[in-house]
Amino acid sequence: MCKIPLMASIFRGLYLIEDKRLEKELFGLKFKNPVGLAAGFDKDAKLFNELNNFGFGFIEIGTLTPKPQDGNPKKRLFRLKEDSAIINRMGFNNGGVHEAVERLRKNNDVLIGGNIGKNKVTPNEDAVDDYKICFNALFDHVDYFVVNVSSPNTPNLRALQDKEPLTKLLQVLKDENIKRSKGKPILLKIAPDLTDEQLLDIIEIVSVTKIDGVIATNTTISREGLRSDNKNEMGGLSGKPLAVRSTEVIRFLSQKSNKAFAIVGVGGIHSKEDALEKLDAGADLVQLYTGFIYEGPKLIKDINKALLSR
Ligand SMILES: Cc1cc2nc3c(=O)[nH]c(=O)nc-3n(C[C@H](O)[C@H](O)[C@H](O)COP(=O)(O)O)c2cc1C
Questions:
Q1: Are 212 and 186 in contact (CB under 8 A)?
Q2: Separation between Cα atoms, residue 127 and residue 102, nearest integer Å
Q3: Pocket of ligand 1 (CB under 6 A)
Q4: Which residue owns the Cα nearest ligand 1 atom 5?
Q5: Which tens digits make up the pLDDT trace of 259-287?
Q6: What is the pLDDT of residues 147-163, one digit of tens each?
Q7: Could you tell me the pTM of the whole model?
Q8: Residue 86 belongs to what H/E stretch?
Q9: Which of 39, 65, 81, 217 is 20 to 30 Å from 291 at the Cα level?
Q10: 151 belongs to the catalytic site
Q11: Which of 56, 116, 112 is nearest to 287 (CA)?
């Protein structure tokens, strides 16, 4: 009868660190610690309460789309063990935003980010409506929003990162946000494959639309320096080979914007040193996915312990 609470308390005993010095206030939210779970792991908001027992400071669910969709045919996820990396072409497989909302009603006080996208069948001209549906459905159930226009696995999605469509999309969501008595923070998740010029555009767009920050970065389409057999699979590459580029993007955004907005650093964090590097480059929070797979939940504790001993 008490199987789950017992397991939960074992995991909490092993992995949780609670310390006031790890707390972080950012865009009006209080994070228990700055180490989060990146989007894509709990796409359908099925596991966030359990995952929270591993000591994350926040958990990002999604990417969710308005309608359920299967995603790409399997096999669509490949480990690149020699490179401590993953290539995935999941393609936003999810049960749709409305089902996720029902599960989010059972949140035991986990700080949740809602990562939103568009259905594959929705043409880019109508993409704004998909994001708006997800935004409004999730509004009462998440603490912050992430606008995902950077997955390489939905055809043409990344074209929404261009200045004009992106400004329009973010403006529409800001307009929805101000209809509420208290708005929610909105972040933009970007690809690591943007040029410096495109990153400067991002800084301008954040400033014009006054969104709260950027998540840098999503997976890359680059295949530089890989050794594993699976290196030529199609999809987005995550894990260790992404670390340097994603930190570069964080540093560029932080320096060129003069720290004008919040930055969540993600990409290739497999050790406490990797996390500290991203924080030193200008990230306010960090997230993990592939490092969590390869290193296990101890990585979260290691990073938080390193922060405490600083
Ligand atoms: C299997 C898999 C699925 C992912 N799905 C999503 C997703 O649905 N939405 C999203 O914004 N990012 C998604 N990501 C990207 C991660 O959130 C993260 O940005 C990226 O993997 C880089 O971090 P990492 O090197 O720690 O994995 C996914 C990553 C992986 C490996």
A1: yes
A2: 24
A3: 38-40, 43, 62-63, 77, 86, 88, 90, 92, 115, 148, 151, 189, 218-219, 238-239, 242, 266-269, 288-291
A4: 40
A5: 999 999 999 999 999 999 999 999 999 99
A6: 999 999 999 999 999 99
A7: 0.97
A8: strand 85-88
A9: 65
A10: yes
A11: 56
